[in-house]
Write a structure and sequence with these properties.
3 strands, 3-stranded mixed beta sheet, binds FE2/S2 (inorganic) cluster, 19% strand, mainly beta, 1 helix
Length: 77
């Protein structure tokens, strides 16, 4: 199980392996734990909207399990 993270600004594509223990984490928390610098000023309370991906999805609103084997993109990474 893995999630790919693409930065449109840098052109970098990172593949992060996902363990079974991480499936219920929010995508935001998971990315932070793997040192991906996703913007956030409300710490995942769904208020600041800074954690959006390139398609406008709030990463604090989704679970890791929702993004398995998908690529998530961020304009500013
Ligand atoms: S971290 Fe603030 S809305 Fe997601």
């Amino acid at each position: 199980m893995q999630i790919k993270v693409k930065g449109r600004a840098s052109g970098k594509l990172q593949t992060i392996n996902v363990s079974a223990l991480e499936l219920e984490l929010s995508l935001l928390d998971f990315l932070h734990q793997h040192e991906i610098p996703i913007a956030s000023s409300c710490s995942g309370k769904k208020q600041c909207r800074k954690c959006v991906d390139s398609s406008g999805v709030l990463t604090c609103e989704l679970k890791v399990a929702d993004y398995l084997d998908k690529t998530i993109e961020f304009d500013y990474l």
